[in-house]
Each structure stands twice: as C-alpha cells, then as structure tokens.
C-alpha cells in the first residue's frame, strides 16, 4: 500500500546513514532501467525467520532485519522503490483508492497500485557475520578527532586486524561478477577503475543517481593513503567518471557530487558519484570529502592526508571507537 495525500504540513526527520554491503543486484541498460533477459521470479525468503529489526526509517522507507535463512545467519534489507515519472499514467489508470479522510479541499487515500508498480527492493546478506549485524543496527554516533599519529597508532592497526572480506570488490575488478552492470571500465593497472551503480540506486530514474568508481590499485585503503603520486589516478577517475555518466545518463558534471568517505565502509579506494540534490547517505560534511578538494589539497601539500587531523563519525558499537577510548582520545 502507498499513502497519497494532500497535506498542509510536511515534517521530516534526519535520515540515518545506512550503507549496504551485500549480494548485488543485476541488470541495467543505457537508461538505467532494467532490461535484457531478466531472471525468473523466485522466493528465496520463504525460509527466512526474523530475529530482530536492526533499524528502520519511515522517511527513507527502509527496514533492516536480522534472522536466519535455511539455518544460516542473514540480514535482509527491505526498501520501497520510488514512484517513477514514466509510470504515472499507468499508476493513475490501474490503481484502486480508498478514502481515509476528507476535510474541505484536503483528501487522504490509501492507494493500491498494480503489483509491478509496488515493488520492494530486497537485499540479502547470507551468511551474515556479527560484523554485518552490527553494521546495520541503529546506534548512537560520536564525532572522533584523528591526527596523523592517531591513524598510524590506532586506526591502521585496527584496520589491519579486521577480517571483513574484499573478495566482492576483486570479483568486480576481475570481471568475475557484475560485469553486465559496469558503466565504464579503464583497465590501466595504475590509473584505471571500474564505474558501476551502487546498491543504493535502483537505476529506475536519474534523480537519485548513485555510482561507485573502484580503483584498480589494491594498496590504497582510504583517503589517508593518498599522496601527490596518486594525482594521475584521481584526475582520471574524476574526468572519465564524469564523461561516462554524461554519455550514459545525460547528466552534466555540474549536476554531480563526487566525493570520498572517511572513514569508508570498506578499505579499498573508491569514489562516490551522486546527483546533486539527492540526499545520499554519507554525503554530510562530517564524512564526505569532495574529490575536487582532495585533488587541490594534494597539489598544495603532497602529504596532506597523511599528516592533517580528520574528523569522522563512529557508531557506539564500532570497535574503532573502543580503541580511541582506550587510547584516551575520546
């Protein structure tokens, strides 16, 4: 069911950043819409039993569930898909409405859309580890101050001690998975990258466009590893990424937000491309660093990100937050 109402007052809540690390969807054509030979419908969730609701957001229309599927621990993400402009005529023609309230010029209805216009995007992580469960659980956040020395003595050892796999990243780079989803591929081992849609984008409309450029170099964990020697790589991602998006989605560079996260959700250099105006998770000033600023900072100071103090948010259950507390840095 979808709610359709003329409202005199609209309230909003701060959207919580909820990144997704999961089995990835398939299928897109030049317009970002599903196309080609689609897999048949199936119900892999018939054996899923819910243990708990990790978090949810009425504003984002998304819910994160923890449970078991065929005996394995699993995380399931349910997200209502947005209404598409090109489906409006069919939506108005074939839907049924039931009146909830009428007052003067204002009316509120429950709208029952045709099933194919009322889909729920579903992401499954299975088997899921305790790290996945913690990642999606709602938690209080704290802003951490990290000096260059803090990175080397606290953050880097913590990162090196983690076992969260990057195999899914290498599968993309080696064309072992998701090859049909790639928007642009530069095979150069030094400055090359793969550009493809992020899971946060359902590829149905460009208003919430979200793509990720994954660098081919495997020894760059994050912003902290960058120096002036990486400027050719960053320039290449910046220029060719924008050009590829213009060609595929007819979206000019002036309508794009291009940035890196610190801390990133996974420690292999990647760059986010989102449509300006789209309130993408993690695009706030406490975590996002514009790629244009990163390039300029490295041109000014070759070791800029290896020495400067950076601030970033960590959730209460994040092990790295515990390390900062133990070191007396929080």
Q: Number of DSSP strands?
A: 15
How many structural domains does the protein architecture include?
2
Just give the CATH class of the largest domain.
Alpha Beta
Apparent shape: globular
Just name the CATH architecture of the largest domain: 2-Layer Sandwich
Mean pLDDT: 86
- Describe the strand arrangement of the main beta sheet, using strand numbers: 9-10-11-13-12-14
Helical residue percent band: 10-25%
Structural class: alpha+beta
Largest sheet geometry = 6 strands, antiparallel
Q: Let me know the CATH homologous superfamily of the largest domain.
A: HIT-like
Q: Tally the helices: what do you get?
A: 8
For this structure, the CATH topology of the largest domain is: HIT family, subunit A
Which regions have little confidence, pLDDT < 50, spanning 5+ residues? 1-35
Distance between the ends: 45 Å
What is the alpha-carbon Rg in Å? 21 Å
Order of helices and strands: EEEEHEEEHEHHEEEHEEEHHEH
Share of residues in strands: 25-35%
Pfam family, one: DcpS_C
GO biological process, one term: deadenylation-dependent decapping of nuclear-transcribed mRNA
Main location: cytoplasm
Region (Disordered): 1-42
How would you describe this structure to a colleague?
The chain has 8 helices and 15 strands. By secondary structure, it is of the alpha+beta class. A hairpin with a 6-residue loop joins β9 and β10. It is globular, with a radius of gyration of 21 Å. It starts with a strand and ends with a helix.
């Amino acid at each position: 069911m979808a709610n359709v109402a003329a409202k005199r007052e609209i309230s909003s809540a701060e959207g919580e950043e909820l990144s997704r690390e999961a089995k990835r969807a398939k299928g897109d054509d030049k317009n970002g819409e599903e196309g080609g030979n689609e897999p048949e419908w199936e119900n892999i969730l018939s054996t899923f039993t819910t243990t708990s609701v990790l978090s949810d957001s009425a504003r984002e229309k998304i819910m994160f569930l923890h449970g078991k599927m065929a005996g394995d621990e699993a995380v399931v993400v349910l997200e209502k898909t947005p209404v598409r402009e090109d489906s409006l005529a069919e939506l108005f023609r074939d839907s049924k409405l039931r009146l909830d309230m009428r007052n003067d010029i204002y009316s509120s209805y429950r709208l029952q859309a045709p099933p194919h216009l009322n889909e729920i995007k579903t992401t499954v992580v299975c088997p899921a580890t305790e790290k996945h469960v913690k990642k999606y659980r709602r938690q209080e956040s704290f802003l951490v101050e990290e000096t260059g020395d803090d990175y080397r003595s606290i953050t880097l050892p913590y990162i090196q001690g983690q076992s969260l796999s990057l195999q899914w990243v290498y599968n993309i780079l080696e064309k072992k998975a998701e090859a049909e989803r790639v928007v642009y591929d530069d095979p150069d081992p030094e400055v090359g990258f793969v550009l493809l849609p992020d899971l946060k984008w359902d590829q149905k409309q460009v208003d919430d466009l979200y793509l990720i450029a994954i660098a081919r170099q495997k020894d760059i964990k994050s912003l902290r590893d960058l120096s002036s020697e990486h400027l050719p790589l960053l320039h290449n991602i910046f220029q060719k990424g924008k050009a590829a998006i213009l060609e595929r989605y007819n979206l000019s560079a002036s309508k794009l937000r291009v940035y890196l996260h610190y801390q990133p959700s996974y420690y292999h250099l990647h760059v986010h491309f989102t449509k300006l105006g789209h309130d993408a998770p993690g695009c706030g000033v406490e975590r996002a660093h514009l790629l244009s600023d990163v390039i300029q900072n490295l041109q000014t100071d070759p070791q800029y990100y290896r020495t400067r103090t950076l601030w970033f948010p960590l959730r209460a259950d994040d092990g790295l937050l515990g390390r900062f507390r133990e070191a007396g840095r929080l």
